[in-house]
Amino acid sequence: MPSPTTAPAPADVPVPVRRRARLTTALVAGELSATATQVQLTLTTFFVGMALGQLVGGPVSDRHGRRRLLVASIAVMTVASVVCALTPSIGVMMAARFVQGFAGGWAMVIGRAVVVDLARGARLVWALNVIAAVGGIAPIVGPLLGAVILQMSHWRVSFWAVAAMGVAMTVAVLVAVPETLPPQRRHAGGLRAFAVAGRQVLGNRRYVGYVLVSGSAMGAVFAYVATSAFVLQSMNGMSPIAYSADFAANAAGMTVAALVAARLAGRVATRRVIAVGQAAALLAGVAMLAGALWWDTPLLLAVACFAVLMTAQGLIGPNGGALASAEVPGHPGTGSAVLGFVQWIAAGIVAPIAGLGGEDTAVPMALLMIACVALSTAGLLLARPGASGRRASAGPFGGRQVRGVLDGRPGRHRGGVGDHDAGGPGEGGGGQDEQDARQTHRG
Hints:
- The protein is an all-alpha fold.
- The protein is 74% helix and 0% strand.
- The protein folds into 2 domains: 4-382, Up-down Bundle (Growth Hormone, Chain: A); 400-442, no CATH class.
- The longest helix is centred in the middle third of the chain and has 30 residues, at 205-234.
- The radius of gyration is 22 Å and the shape is globular.
- The two termini are 37 Å apart.
């Protein structure tokens, strides 16, 4: 979890937090005999480590299993957090932050792979939406919690807090998470096997399309995090208390939307839910652009547009990730790795771009909102039912049935999730997937 002690770029967090972060940057730099730039780079090393950890951790877990690697990755993250808390120099902190991010990314991707191992069809959509509802607000709430810690104590305490959470997560995995990938379903390892799995996953047009859908949603969320304080406080004079309340309300809106999407799994085609979210996000982006160009972005308009944008992402991002995972059941670790890598790359690209306009205009934010919707729509079209492209190995989890349930394609069975095929010879069986879908629909 990024911490204000590492001084995120000024556009990444709310105004009161940014001021304290700048002060903390000076304190950290003075205590470690470093420059402000070096302190800023510790956040960069964290995000680089997180992206690489997700890219590597998934394929490795496809070979060696989930549980032991999940426990090990959380333990390494915990140790790295302790090193950050005790660091004597900026060089040690940079290295520890990279390891912390790498291990954290490793744990994130394995956690998603565990869900893909256990759930299919509409149940997978439900599970990933619930997870997104709980975890999706972390990039928004994290900086605020970090600011509270900084206000009450020393900057090193934030790393002790992360270490404590790591210990709690390790215990939770040991107690509650079984091994979900038995030896007979594992893949041979090595760089060659990783390359083969990567080609299979990326050769699936539908998977790539849904990754674009999910990645663009992450980009939109970080665009909001990067610019909302400028638009609402600097341009419209919203008080810090009011801004914090609005910030929390939008995070809650995204969470509620993800829970609603989970409830709709098995009743409404997942692609349709994504399309509704895209339409709402586009409306918010166009309204924001019009307000920025002709009405100087009035406060009520900005508040409404941000609320609609964030709620829409709760419908788009988790569902896009679920559909992507359903496309590559034979390589859940690799599929989750690529998905997580793209999401964090999108966040890293969008956040600095969003702040290019400074504190006097909302035009860059509005254009980013529209661009994210355009990219998301392009991904949904690329992944349209019937799109050609190689499909990664279906393994024992079924073929057309899972995709039909999620897509809402015409077929021999009619259902509330969407019409789906019964499948045929060579499609991987899928009888259990059909039963799951019907059961979910009846529920």
